[in-house]
Amino acid sequence: MRATQVYIMIQRWRERSATRLVTLCLSVVLPLGLPAAAQNGRSASGSTSAADSQTVLTGVVRGAQNHGYIEVPFHVPAGARRVTIQFDYTGKEQHTALDLGLLDPAGLRCWSGGNKSVLTVGLSDATPSCLPGAILAGAWNVLIGVPNIRAGVESHYTIHVFLSRSGAVADEPEILRQPLRAGPAWFRGDLHMHTAHSDGQCPSQTGTMVPCPVFFTVDAAARRGLDFIAITDHNASSQYDTMRELQPYFDKVLLIPGRELTTVQGHVNFLGSTDFVDFRLDGKTVPDMNALLRSAARVGAITSINHPLDPSGEICMGCGWTPVRPVDVHLLTGVEAVNGGSEQFGLSNVPFWNKQLDLGCRLTGLGGSDNHRPLQPLDQIGSIGSPTTVVYAANLSVPAIIDGIRAGRVFIDLTGSRDKLLELSAQSSGQVFHAGGVLHAPRGATVGFEAHIVAAAGARLRWIEDGRYAPQSSPTEVTSADQSFPLHWTSDGQRHWMRVQVEGPGDKLWLLGNPIYVNWDLANHCFQ
Description:
Layout: H1 3-17, E1 44-49, E2 54-62, E3 69-76, E4 82-89, E5 97-104, E6 107-113, E7 118-122, E8 138-148, E9 154-164, E10 185-190, E11 201-203, E12 209-211, H2 214-224, E13 228-231, H3 239-246, E14 254-263, E15 266-271, H4 289-298, E16 302-305, E17 334-339, H5 350-358, E18 364-368, E19 388-393, H6 398-407, E20 410-413, E21 421-428, E22 431-434, E23 438-439, E24 446-454, E25 460-465, E26 468-469, E27 476-477, E28 482-490, E29 496-503, E30 509-513, E31 516-518
Parallel strand pairs: 10-13, 13-14, 16-17, 17-18, 23-31
Antiparallel strand pairs: 1-2, 2-9, 3-8, 4-7, 4-9, 5-6, 5-8, 10-19, 11-12, 14-15, 15-16, 19-20, 20-30, 21-22, 21-24, 24-28, 25-26, 25-27, 25-29, 29-30, 29-31
């Protein structure tokens, strides 16, 4: 490794080692029952739908109530994690204008005026014009302001009240998780980055390095052309409120709630939930890594190991994967096989991933820039989107991206391009399988693998079987912009995994695919 490369890596380690664990308030998740129907003896009625755990409130505003305020009550039981309301009313063509607010048992929680029809409040994030914080049990009220309704006019309103049982995005009402893009596709993103809410920095107006606002991270992702990003500040959840504000503006870039659970025994990416998970892995507060991972699963998150082969100790506190007790790998979804271009500097995490696969532990290989400098030029290694994780998903929504990662239909674009594509499929016994899929092939059966590569002319394809170049194949040149490569493989009846990778000039890794698993026992004993 050249001296300049060593210097760059040391600088990256210093950035990480500067991390300070954030002290957060603990909150206990209590069982949440269905919301009780709201009662309003004057102008509103309520009903509860058990199918979607929502309360529907209806009522009438009359001309005599002009310039007044109306409170529409509903009940929030103990243990609720989020309150969301959706508001609609009639009479707009007659210039009726109704404003929207929300009162909790302690006082005013939201006031949006008339510019919003959906409000949501959670422990760590809320709609702009609302306050995040504890969801108090008891009597809440939708607050309707009446700046204008004509004499003799009636306006009929409908309010849907949704209560979420956890911070998992999948538990949010559908109105909050509408896809940014409908339909299945390959979506490009970055799963690991830092902002002002931990140790992300950028120069201020005067050139001083300061904590960098979340806006610049999302803006860089938009300029890169990414479809999604996960903002994963160290142990922090304060970034979620800013993300809630930015998402309506950045309506082409899906913002996935995440954090990097930063411990002295390793760093774990946590995606898909805003709930707090205690990171104090000291043997007492959190007994071991398994306890931490189980806590993450309980709140609806998926987890992956970040930069497992990085050095640990004073040079980079807890950056390497060094649990003191065996870890149940079934509790994890993935591993960061490529971190910020580290493989370019001789610090590839692919061997760690290969080892887990060889042991029968199915982990999705992921990439993450681990960016701490959002204003870093996008043509540099480790800038936002370098590398890019490309996920095949049913649509561009948080639940769909999470499901795509779980399924393993993922590849890593180390070039950070907008158009390169790597698809792996296999045909066996009349069925078609894709990356992440598990097929069964008895001894002597033939499996037809196929790699489809787009926008990688001038590179070469490598078949990887059980972590080594497949003996049935030789390096194959990619000569066109859209090309497919078959491989006929005969099973010996044993467990194997097969993936493909694309190497550019100088043997530089361009594209890294996830495996198809052959004769795999998903219940395999996986403690590492």
